[in-house]
Structure formats: structure tokens, C-alpha cells
Amino acid sequence: MADFDINILGCGSALPTTRHLATSQIIDLRDKLYMIDCGEGTQVQMRRMRIKFSRLNHIFISHLHGDHCFGLPGLISTLGMLGRNGELVIHGPKEIESYMRPILDIFCKGLPYEIRFNLIDPTTHSLVMEDRSLSVYSIPLKHRIPCCGYLFAEKAKEAHIIREMTDFYQVPVRMMQEIKRGADFVTPEGEVIPNARLTRPAVAPKRYAYCSDTAFHSSIIPIIEGVDLLYHEATFAECDAARAKETFHSTARQAAEIAYKAQVKRLVIGHYSARYEDMAPLKKEADKIFPGTILGEEGMRLSV
């Protein structure tokens, strides 16, 4: 079972190529799936990567450019054909519902499951979704249209019981959940056994930040500071910095600067322009600022 994995389905930009697919990722957090963006080819790539459609319950759309959402109608239709019956929640700017409603009315009548739109304000940093496993926050980005990234913050896990100690102090089974949550144990004789003697701390919760598409935007640094893994678009090389500025995208060097200033643990780049056949120069530029930058590729799985 995956603990907290990022599956890169596509890391290309708007113009289709044979080298890269349009943007989409799936987060696998202890077998619960969360999709970020849904460009063309997403569901085919899910098949190739053997990702189970049935475990997907939330889709997060960053903005309404086609390379981030043109795969959504097909995926929704396929889920219906597969007999899905649980609710599917689509999170994104208000334009996502305006885009999808006519398509649902024409092509997806009689779906066996409900679709709910959670419309968010991409200009603010706020809580978007929360469940037992994690909290998801929006990250305001700087693009030609309203656009946001997403911060996935894993919730703290319960402490691990030290079985030898709970057996020694004869802790009743009914109290184990309270002990995991931090409670001390009081023996029948009134002795207080500190929780630290009965448990080991769980692994610290992890955080993943997804930032695509955006111009260099230093305002996001406090939001993503110290994350375990950052995905940041790197559409252009530094030689095309003027084009990056004109289209509100980032260079690989700028992505690395954001990662460096935010003191993130690891950086993966993507959303490559179709003009580049070799991505190695992008990695080289990023490595100068943030050594060890990961060059995102289709089919890649990264553990947070």
C-alpha cells in the first residue's frame, strides 16, 4: 500500500507532442486517490500505470486552460461505464462548472453517480477540502487567467503502541485508542503511566505542493515553505525568459529559485514547452540553484 505517492500522468504543456502528455497527476495516500488536473490522455495513462479508477473520489482543477481539463469529460463518462456509484467531487474555480454542465447535459445523461462541484476562489489561500487523511489548501498563482495550485497536508498519524509496555502494565484493549491519541494510563492502584512510556511517535506528517501554471511568484513562498516535495512548472529555459514573462509561465531557473527560497526538501519540475526536445538543459539550469532537481516524466512515481 502506498503511503504518500505522487503519480505523474502528464507533464507537457498546451501544444501536444509525442514526447509528453498534457498535465495530470494522481496522489495516492494510503490507497485513497486524489487527481490534480485532467488533460487529454489522462485516463489512458491511468490504464498504463495500473491506477484503479474506482478509488478516485476527488479531482482538483487548477484553471480552465485546455491542457489541464480537456480530459475531464471523457474520464467522467468512463467512470459511468465502469458502474461507479459513489459521489465524485470536482474542486476548482467557478468556471469549471460553467464548462462542464453543458457537456454533462449532452454526453453524460443518466450517470449512475453524483457529481458535485466545490467552487473555490483561486485568488486566496484557503482550505479547499478535508478528510480523515489530509487537508488540501489552495495556493494562489500568477497566470493569465484565475489559477491556483494545491497544498496537500497529511494529517498527523496516531502514535505506535509499544506492545511490551502495554502488556506489562496490563492496559485494557478498550483503552488502546485513547493511548494512541496521547492519553496517559492510570493503573487500578492509581499510578499514572505516562503516554511516552507506552507509545512511539508516528512518522511526521508530510506535505506536497503543486504549482502549475504560474509566472515567478514569490508570494507563494510562505505557503509552501519547507514542504517535503514541490512540483513547480518549468515551461521554459532561461534563454526564453522573455517568452515566459509574456505568457505568465516560469523558467526552470525560476522554479529552482522558488524551491531554494522556500527551503523545500525536494523539487520536481514539469509542464515543458513543446519547443524543447531535450529536457536535460532545463534540469541543468535548475540544478545550479537547487541541486538534485528531479526532471518530471510520464509514468514517474515519487514518494513524498
TrEMBL record:
Q: Name one GO molecular function term.
A: zinc ion binding
Record InterPro entries: RibonucZ/Hydroxyglut_hydro, RNase_Z/BN
Active-site residues (renumbered): 67
Q: Which SUPFAM superfamilies match?
A: Metallo-hydrolase/oxidoreductase
Name any cofactors this protein relies on.
Zn(2+)
What the entry lists under Pfam families is as follows:
Anti-Pycsar_Apyc1 (PF23023)
Q: Quick one: which residues bind Zn(2+) 2?
A: 67-68, 213, 271
What keywords are annotated for this sequence in UniProt? Endonuclease, Hydrolase, Metal-binding, Nuclease, tRNA processing, Zinc
Q: Which family would the database say this protein is a member of?
A: Belongs to the RNase Z family.
Q: What does this protein do?
A: Zinc phosphodiesterase, which displays some tRNA 3'-processing endonuclease activity. Probably involved in tRNA maturation, by removing a 3'-trailer from precursor tRNA.
Q: How does it assemble?
A: Homodimer.
PANTHER family in the record: ZINC PHOSPHODIESTERASE ELAC PROTEIN 1
Question: What's the protein name?
Answer: Ribonuclease Z
Which gene does this sequence derive from?
A: rnz
